[in-house]
Automatic annotation (TrEMBL):
Active site: 94 (proton donor/acceptor), 203 (proton donor/acceptor)
EC category: isomerase
PANTHER family listed in its UniProt record: GLUTAMATE RACEMASE
Name listed for the protein in its UniProt record: Glutamate racemase
Record GO biological process: cell wall organization; peptidoglycan biosynthetic process; regulation of cell shape
Species in which this protein is naturally found: Dulcicalothrix desertica PCC 7102
C-alpha cells in the first residue's frame, strides 16, 4: 500500500519542494486500466518535459458497466489520493468517468481536472457532419458525446454504438484474436450503414484497436482519437496557469489497484518497455 503527502521523497527527489516549485509537480493521469496509455503517449509527445503519475483502477474495471454513483465514488477516491501525493493537474483519461463524474468532482478539488469528451467533440465537428461514436455502455447511455457535439454544431448528425466487449478484450490482450474482429465488425456495421464520415473513439482503450477498426471502415471515414486533443488541452491549461515544467521530467510512476504484473505485461505493447508497477489497495473503498 502507498500513501504519502511527501511525494518528492518517495520518488527520490529530495532537492526541491512542490509547494515552492509547483511547476515540477507531476500530472496525474487515470483510467480503469491500460486505455489511458493512449493519452499518456500523447502527453509524452506534446509536453515531454512533464512528470506523470499514471493510475489504473484495474481492480474495478470495466467502468463502462458501472452506475453513475459508483463512477463518481471511484473518481473521488482516486483524486483524493492524487491530491495527497501532490499532483498539479489531473487528466481523466476515461470517457466513462468524463461523462458521468467530471462535473461533480471538479467542484470538490482545487487543481484542474481535464476530461476527454469536450476535446473529442470539438475535434469531431471539424472533420464531418455525420459522426459515429463507439463507446462503453455507460458513456453511450449518457449521451455525453452526442450532447457535446450538437451543442457545438446543431446540424451535425450523431449515431452512437455501445461496445461492451471491447475493453475486456483489450485488457486481456486479445486485440489480434479473430473473435475481436468479429465483434468490431458487428459494432461498426450500423455506423457504416449510416454512411458516417467521422468516427470518434468514445473510450481511451479503443485506439489500441486502430489497425482493426481502420481496416473495417471505408477509407473516407475520418477517425478522431480524443487523446490527441486532450494532451493539447493540457498544454494550454498549463500555460494559462504558468505550471509548465522547464526541468527534466522524472520517470513516469505507474500505480494500479489490481495485479501489477498483469498491467505490466499488457502495457508493454503500448509503452515499448516493461514498466515498474506499484499497487494500492482499494478494497475498503478508499485508496490507501
Amino acid at each position: 500500500m502507498f500513501l504519502s503527502s511527501n511525494f518528492e521523497t518517495n520518488l527520490g527527489q529530495e532537492n526541491f519542494n512542490y509547494y515552492t516549485e509547483p511547476q515540477r509537480a507531476p500530472i496525474g493521469v487515470f483510467d480503469s486500466g491500460v486505455g489511458g496509455l493512449t493519452v499518456l503517449r500523447e502527453l509524452y509527445r506534446q509536453i515531454p518535459n512533464e512528470s506523470i503519475l499514471y493510475f489504473g483502477d484495474t481492480a474495478r474495471l470495466p467502468y463502462g458497466i458501472r452506475s453513475q454513483a459508483e463512477i463518481i465514488q471511484f473518481n473521488r477516491e482516486i483524486l483524493t489520493w492524487m491530491q495527497h501525493v501532490g499532483v498539479k493537474m489531473a487528466v481523466m483519461a476515461c470517457n466513462t468517468s468524463s461523462a458521468l463524474a467530471l462535473e461533480t468532482v471538479r467542484e470538490e478539488f482545487d487543481f484542474p481536472i481535464i476530461g476527454v469528451i469536450l476535446p473529442g467533440a470539438l475535434a469531431a465537428v471539424q472533420y464531418g457532419k455525420r459522426i459515429g461514436v463507439i463507446a462503453t455502455p455507460a458513456t453511450a447511455k449518457s449521451n455525453a458525446y452526442k450532447n457535446a457535439i450538437l451543442e457545438i454544431d446543431a446540424i451535425a448528425q450523431v449515431w452512437q454504438v455501445s461496445c461492451p466487449e471491447f475493453v475486456p478484450l483489450i485488457e486481456q490482450n486479445r486485440i489480434h484474436d479473430p473473435y475481436t474482429v468479429e465483434v468490431a465488425t458487428s459494432y461498426l456495421e450500423p455506423l457504416i450503414q449510416q454512411q458516417i464520415d467521422t468516427l470518434v473513439y468514445g473510450c481511451t482503450h479503443y485506439p489500441h484497436l486502430a489497425p482493426i477498426l481502420r481496416s473495417l471502415l471505408p477509407s473516407t471515414v475520418n477517425i478522431v482519437d480524443p487523446a490527441v486533443y486532450v494532451a493539447s488541452a493540457c498544454a494550454t491549461e498549463l500555460d494559462i496557469l504558468n505550471l509548465r515544467n522547464n526541468f527534466p521530467p522524472m520517470p513516469t510512476r505507474f500505480v494500479v489497484s489490481g495485479c501489477p504484473e498483469t498491467f505490466a505485461l499488457t502495457s508493454v505493447n503500448w509503452l515499448g518497455c516493461t514498466p515498474t508497477v506499484e499497487v494500492v489497495n482499494c478494497g475498503s473503498g478508499i485508496l490507501a
